[in-house]
Amino acid sequence: MITSLEHAPAAGEVGQLQRLKVAGIPVVETTVLMGLEVEFYQLGNLAEQLRRTFAGVFGARLDEEKLEAASAQAERLLRESYLLPERSEEVKAALPGGSLLVRYAGEAPFSLEPGPQEALWALKRLWASRWQVDAVLERAPELAPPEVPSLIQAVQGSLELDPILSQQASQVLGAAVRIWSSSGRAVWVAVS
């Protein structure tokens, strides 16, 4: 599903950003991608290829050399796989022009790109980042990465911690949060 923030299912940070917007706190234009990463894995038969790539890494003890080689191969596999052309066009059509921030919901910014095509390439790099050694170890022995919405956000200017928006958002959300903003508009809700 490729949708605007307003029409995305309200869960996690996506729901928090929606609540802030409804409360009148300015939020950057956000495109939410849900299920697209799963589709990418399915169409490329990536799950089976990754399972074979990581065979023998986790046994009675962790084989660090195999883990490093498998992680590098997994990242390469994702970067060299393709989204369906029509899906790529749908994503690009849903994005505004200008600088775009690519990241997972609930996670720190991953990549700032100058336009839609570059954001699409960054999206694949974001998905591939789930296979870096540290990321794999974090979820071991589970191999599959968690399903998390990917966000592409229109930003203008630098991203900075905004104490005023943080205070307002904490009141709206009923919990202490930090808001990172761009030009006075909320981008990232970080739990304090």
Q: Can you put this structure into words, describing what you see?
A:
Strand 7 (177-182) and strand 8 (185-191) form a beta hairpin. It contains 8 helices and 8 strands; from the N terminus they run E-H-E-H-H-H-H-E-E-H-H-E-E-H-E-E. It has a single domain (2-191), classed as Dna Ligase, domain 1, CATH 3.30.1490.20. It has 192 residues and is an alpha+beta fold. The protein starts with a strand and ends with a strand. It is globular and about 50 Å long. The protein has helices at 12-22, 36-43, 46-53, 64-80, 85-94, 116-128, 133-139, 163-173, and strands at residues 2-4, 30-33, 100-104, 111-113, 150-154, 159-161, 177-182, 185-191. It has a 5-stranded antiparallel sheet with strand order 1-2-5-3-4, with helices on one face. A 3-stranded antiparallel sheet has the order 6-7-8.
| CATH fold-type name | Dna Ligase, domain 1
What is the end-to-end distance? 30 Å
**SSE topology string:** EHEHHHHEEHHEEHEE
Number of helices: 8
For the record, what CATH class applies? Alpha Beta
The CATH architecture would be: 2-Layer Sandwich
Strand order, biggest sheet?
1-2-5-3-4
Helix content: 40-55%
Number of domains: 1
State the fourth-level CATH superfamily: ATP-grasp fold, A domain
User: Which class best fits the helix and strand makeup?
Assistant: alpha+beta
Rg, rounded, reads 18 Å
